[in-house]
Specification:
The structure holds two protein chains of two kinds. Helix content of chain A is 34%, strand content 35%. In chain A, helix 1 runs parallel beside helix 2. Chain B folds into four domains: 172 residues, PAS domain (Beta-Lactamase); 91 residues, 2-Layer Sandwich (Beta-Lactamase), CATH 3.30.450; 228 residues, PPM-type phosphatase domain (Phosphatase 2c, domain 1, 4-Layer Sandwich), CATH 3.60.40.10; 141 residues, Heat Shock Protein 90 (2-Layer Sandwich). Chain B is rod-shaped and about 205 Å long. Chain B starts with a helix and ends with a strand. Classes of the chains: A alpha/beta, B alpha+beta.
Chain lengths: 97, 712
């Protein structure tokens, strides 16, 4: 799994590619450095699927942003990812663009 | 019996009718003959009597001429009276060349001029010296019209006047017996008829056939009834010959004619039997002959009908026997067709044959070559009926034996063809399409001997596409020696179906004479919701039946359908209870999927791709759970891929602590993010994605079974 990471003006953009499962989620979690970040964008255009381990990373980011008054969104999820969001009730929690 | 009565009744009716006709014809002919004979007889008698009188008067007149001295001399009347008396005559006149009576036994006639008189003037022809005698018929006398008289004159030599003598009927009556003598005594009328002549006044017979001489002296004694007899004055006109009437004469029924002449009644008598006997003989002979002919005819007709009945019975019996034979043949033939194979997880086959007549030339066959190859074929023997059926039995056995021995369709057909060509006295031939399905790979290797191309049907969930297998065909079997058949192959994806048929399907005809054809066949197959062999066969047969709409089936209709189903494939591997093990397990799934992609057709690969992410998520959730919580020494994944229906079963086995993930309540997904527990989401996802999921613990192992069916 590769993760493209970009931080500018407190906006952290993470673009992982491949599968987001128990193997790869720790990598995404490691890339999620929220120091001074007020806005997190997960660009999921390259994500094949996501398991609960991946969801946990997203939840962590979401909770952190809510605590500091920042925002988080998931961009360009594929149908499979959207299915998982629906299934787990995340659609109402995450901002999906 | 009824028919026999009819035949003999008809013959009898015809007989009666023909006899009536013959009787009528015979009677008419007899009557005609009678009339003709009587006409002739009356004329004959009349002429004879008249001739006798003329002869007598001529003799008298010539005697007078001689007495006078061959020249007209005015003799005194006394002398003339004496002469008349001597000559026994009523009147005698001497007439000179000028036609004036110069002497007569009646003095009042002297001086009468004959020339110019309408009647007497006729005699003036005697004065030209050519004619010697002139006779006149009886006519009413000028002086006494009641009395008829006849005149005859003989010329003096050189036409120098003539002597005229006259005779009245009264004197004639007296003279007739003498004149006629017994001329009628032996005079036969026909063979049995006779003449009677009787005096008008006394009724005394002056002439009587000699054979009846003693029976009668008078007319009354002959049996002749005057009241019934209409006398005819034949001399009145000399033309009409009178009317025939019936009388009983001498005790015998007779046809009679009578006429009056010279104070006498002349009767021609012809017994009825004269001609009626002939008629009776004719009719009798005819009756006998006709009886013989009709009887012979009736017997003949009766025999013909009896023979025809026997023939009919024979043919009916023969037909029944043939029908029975056909039924038996059909039973034998149908029994020769396979009825099914033990159920196999790798294929399903169905076939049916519907003969046009009791036994057909079509056949099909399917049988296992070994545990992983099944042979199937459809063939059509030329012709129909017993001959085709017998040939079909031979060909079927030969093809099966050869295929079992050689296994390759092309090689088998080449060998079968050589065998059939070597011994083909009836010049039969057959077309065949033979395929062998490899149950491991779905590859059908086949050879075609002039048969219709089969239809390949993809599963409905794979588009339901239909295509004819386009392969160049070899020649028909048993037709040409030395033919080598080419082997071809086509690969069926799991779930795909092949449909084989005979031309009885494509060449079925509707009311307009149109053929069912390949396009209608393709459309019928395409409309099948799920290409199960028996469904495909049933749908095609129904389409053909609807198309021909009750028209008699011209050819055998045979259908065979075989569906390839890949058997379930199982895989399993054990992984260490670490995060690396989870990663390895994920890679293992990818490895299996790649294998399946290579193995299955394009359709199966696509379906697998659609399921792959879910399978990965499930594997990730379950495996990470085991690694984190169970304390197992390792875990095993068992994967079973199924094609029918398409689906994957994953079983996760571990020797960790007993743990049924299904027993835990699902997390509340309606809670806001800050209150949401992270745990439990994985199991929830698995439950929602799985088609079915179950847990059991056996021998200290946890078994979690998750199945995922193909998305519709």
């Amino acid at each position: 799994m590769t993760i493209e990471k970009k931080l500018e003006n407190g906006k952290l953009t993470l673009a992982p590619s491949g599968r987001l499962d128990t193997n790869t989620s720790p990598e995404l979690e490691a890339a999620l450095e929220l120091e001074g970040v007020t806005e997190v964008v997960f660009d999921f255009a390259g994500v094949e699927y996501i398991s609960s381990a991946g969801l946990r990373v997203l939840m962590t980011a979401q909770k952190a942003m809510m605590a500091c008054g920042g925002t988080m969104c998931v961009a360009n999820p594929n149908a499979m990812v959207k299915d998982v969001f629906d299934m787990t009730g995340m659609t109402g929690i995450f901002t999906i663009v | 019996m009824k028919r026999r009565l009819l035949i003999f009744g008809s013959a009898l009716a015809v007989y009666a009718f023909l006899m009536a006709v013959a009787w009528e014809i015979g009677t008419r002919q007899a009557n005609r003959n009678t009339e003709w004979l009587l006409d002739y007889a009356v004329m004959d008698v009349h002429d004879t009597v008249a001739g006798a009188i003329d002869t007598m008067l001529g003799h008298v007149a010539r005697t007078a001429v001689r007495h006078v001295g061959n020249v007209p001399v005015p003799l005194p009347s006394e002398r003339m009276k004496a002469g008349a008396k001597e000559l026994d005559i009523d009147e005698v006149n001497i007439v000179n060349r000028e036609g004036v009576i110069i002497a007569s036994n009646d003095p009042s006639f002297v001086g009468t001029k004959m020339a110019g008189d309408p009647v007497m003037g006729e005699f003036m022809a005697l004065t030209n010296g050519v004619t010697a005698t002139i006779s006149q018929p009886f006519r009413p006398n000028a002086l006494n019209p009641q009395l008829r008289a006849k005149y005859l004159a003989v010329a003096f030599p050189g036409g120098n006047g003539f002597v005229q003598v006259g005779l009245d009927e009264r004197r004639l009556a007296r003279m007739l017996p003498e004149i006629l003598g017994y001329i009628f005594d032996e005079w036969l009328l026909g063979k049995t008829g006779c003449f009677l002549c009787a005096d008008m006044e006394t009724g005394r017979l002056i002439s009587n056939p000699s054979r009846h001489r003693d029976e009668a002296k008078t007319l009354a004694e002959t049996g002749f009834n005057l009241a019934d007899a209409e006398p005819y004055e034949i001399m009145a006109d000399g033309k009409s010959l009178g009317r025939t009437f019936r009388q009983r004469i001498f005790g015998e029924p007779c046809f009679c004619r009578n006429f009056i002449f010279g104070g006498h009644r002349f009767i021609a008598v012809l017994p009825q039997k004269e001609f009626y006997d002939t008629r009776t003989v004719f009719v009798s002979v005819f009756a006998v002959l006709l009886l013989v002919v009709l009887a012979a005819f009736a017997i003949f007709a009766d025999r013909i009908f009896r023979d025809s009945d026997r023939l009919k019975a024979f043919y009916a019996e023969d037909e029944a026997r043939r029908e029975k034979d056909m039924t038996i043949a059909k039973t034998i033939q149908m029994a020769a067709l396979p009825v099914g194979l033990p159920p196999s997880p790798s294929f399903r086959v169905f076939a049916a044959m519907q003969p046009a007549r009791d036994v057909g030339g079509d056949f099909y066959d399917y049988f296992a070559l070994d545990s992983s190859h099944v042979a199937f074929l459809v063939a059509d023997v030329s012709g129909k009926g017993i001959t085709a059926a017998l040939y079909m039995m031979t060909a079927k056995t030969l093809i099966k034996d050869t295929l079992l021995a050689m296994r390759d369709p092309a090689a088998a057909l080449t060998s079968v063809n050589a065998e059939l060509c070597a011994n083909n006295p009836a010049n039969m031939f057959l077309t065949a399409w033979v395929g062998v399905l490899d149950l491991e790979t779905g590859v059908v290797s086949f050879a075609n001997a002039g048969h219709n191309p089969p239809v390949r049907v993809k599963g409905h969930d794979r588009g339901g596409a239909v295509e004819f297998i386009p392969a160049k065909s070899g020649p028909v079997l048993a037709f040409m020696d030395g033919v080598k058949y080419a082997s071809r192959s086509v690969r069926l994806d799991p779930g795909e179906t092949l449909f084989l048929y005979t031309d009885g399907v494509t060449e079925s005809i509707d009311a307009n004479g149109e053929l069912f054809g390949e396009e209608r066949l393709a459309n019928a197959v395409k409309a099948v919701p799920d290409p199960e062999p028996h469904t495909v066969c049933a749908v095609v047969r129904a389409a053909v039946a609807a198309f021909s709409n009750g028209l008699p089936q011209a050819d055998d209709i045979t259908v065979l359908s075989i569906r390839y189903i890949a058997p379930p494939r199982g895989f399993s591997r054990t992984f260490p209870p670490t995060q690396e093990g989870v990663a390895e397990a994920s890679a293992y799934l990818d490895e299996i999927f790649a294998k399946e992609d290579a193995r299955c057709g394009e359709g199966a690969a696509l379906r697998l791709a659609a399921m792959s992410s879910k399978l990965h998520i499930i594997q990730d959730e379950i495996c990470s759970n085991i690694v984190k919580h169970s304390g197992a020494s390792g875990f095993e994944i068992e994967l079973v891929m199924e094609d029918d229906p398409f689906g994957v079963k994953m079983t996760f086995i571990d020797d960790g602590v007993a743990y049924d993930p299904l027993s835990h309540a699902l997390p509340d997904t309606t809670l806001p993010a800050e209150k949401r527990p992270i745990g439990g989401l994985g199991i929830m996802m698995v439950k929602k994605m799985a088609t079915s999921i179950s847990y059991h613990r056996t021998r200290n192992h946890n078994f979690l079974e998750v199945t995922l069916a193909s998305p519709k």
